[in-house]
Design a protein that fits this description.
alpha+beta, tt1808, chain A, six-stranded mixed beta sheet, 11 helices, 12 strands, elongated, disordered N terminus
Length: 284
Amino acid sequence: MPPPTSSSSHATPPRRRSLPLPAVDERLVMPETRFEAVDGKITYVSPSDEPHGTYHSKIAALLEAYVVAAYRVAVDMLTRTSATNDMAPDASVFPAARDPETGGRKLEELAFEVVSTESLLHAARKARALSDRGVRRVFAIDVERRRALEWSRETASWEILPAGGFLEDRTLVTPLQLRALAEAMQADDAVAHALLAKKNPVIEDALREARGQGKDEGKIAGKIEGKIEGKIEAILVLLAARGLRVTKKAEKRLRAERDEAVVDRWLRRASRGVASVDALLRDS
C-alpha cells in the first residue's frame, strides 16, 4: 500500500483576499508636515519656488471661483491612494458632502499638479496613483511652456490640451479657459467671468449701482441680461476689475452704442481678458 500523500505538498494554496483600500483621509504621515509616502517610502516635499508658488495661488483662486456649491477646493491636501501611498496634489476639487460610511471626506474628483517640463515624469507617478485610486481627472500645469495636460488612463501618459480650449466638468459652474490655468496673467479675468456666471451678489450689486449712476432708473428697469445698457455696465465693471482706466471719451462711446451685436462682442472681449480699452473698441 503506497504511503499517504502529504497534504501540504499538493494542497491548493489559499486565495489571498484583496484588502480593502484605506479611507482617503486616513494618514500615513503626520498631517500638516511637508512629507508624502510613495511606495512606503517617506519623502520630503520642498516648498515651491516663486513661479510654482504663484501658480498654486492662481489655480486655487480660479477653482474657488468656478466650483459649484456642492464641491470644495483644497491645496496640498493629503490623499491616501493605497496601503503605501499618501500624497498631496497641489490643488484638488472634492465633494462637500461627507462619506456616509466613514464620516470622513470623499475622494477628490479633480487633481492638479504644477510642474516644470523636467518634473512631468515625477508628476506622472502621482497621477497614476491618484487615477488608480479613483480620482476622476488629473491635470498638470506646465509653467515653463504655459500649457495644460491631462492624465490619460488609456495610454497611461500625459496628453497636451489645446491652448485655446476649455475645461468642462460637472464640478464647474461654467467652462474654464485652459489659457487661464496655464498663464497666470489670465487668471483674474477668468475669475471675473466665473463670478458673473455665478451671479455673485457683490458683482450683481456693483452692476445695479453702476446702472443707477446718472441714469433714469425707469428707463433701465428690468434684468441685466438681454438689455444693452446692462451689458455695457457689465463691460465697465469688468474693465475696472482689471485695473483699466476708462476715459470719459471711451465711456461716452460705450454708452452711445445701440447695436447689440457690437456690445456682445465687447462683452466677450472684456470677459476673456482684453489688454486695453482701445483694444476693446478697436474695429467695433
